[in-house]
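Re: weekly structure request thread

Next one in the queue (246 aa):
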Amino acid sequence: MTPVPAALLQGASNFRDVGGYLNAQGRRVRRGQVFRSDHLAGLTGEDMTRLQALGIGHSLDFRGAQECAATPYTIAGVQRVALTIEPTVIARMQALVAQGVVPTTEETVDLMRETYRDFVNHNAATFGKFLKHLLEQPTPQVFHCTAGKDRTGFAAALLLSALGVDRATIEHDYLLTNQLYKRDARLEGQGHPHVMKVLWQVQPEFLHAAFDAVDQQHGGMQDYLHGAIGLSPPELAELKRMLLEA
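Done, posted below.
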């Protein structure tokens, strides 16, 4: 496993290279090709210069419409690609609050598990577009949502799974968010502290819910990639050729 990365950007707290991990065959994921991040609306001029130096040509944005409107960004030389997945867990939480219900910590965790199962079962086409965009654009790319933890976390887990990285390593990368992401009250909105703590951190149980759905409802990762995600065997082989060291 790779160590906790140093901050590469001043205006994005959860920005990091997905590369560096070894897969089950001992091949290493290429560094400098695919990056994950929280939202990119707070980048400094130095940050933008840094992205240009990394050669990043596309940002793949999983945020919903209201999120994009609240924190828009334009980066010279970087094309933003909308891969919209609305943050449904927030809507569910708001509906409960409107009814005068304050969810317990466990109920909030259950909502997050449901969100991750939804990623697998209802957002597969969007995550398929994500992987195919990596295939179609050989230049370095960055993908992100608002905090870079849930939609981005599952996307990273899916990519690393496609490249043959084991689940313990994938979980390690996923949980780095709790060390790297700096919570922003302006983005979180109002809510009970125990609820907000669950919503704005990551837990192994969230990712496990997604993997369980892949295994139990889709026959395992390979069948899921070739089925719901829509990646053909030749496309998967090409993705590995592009993103694994020889």
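Residues 105-122 form the longest helix (18 residues). The chain has a mean pLDDT of 92.
Next request, please.
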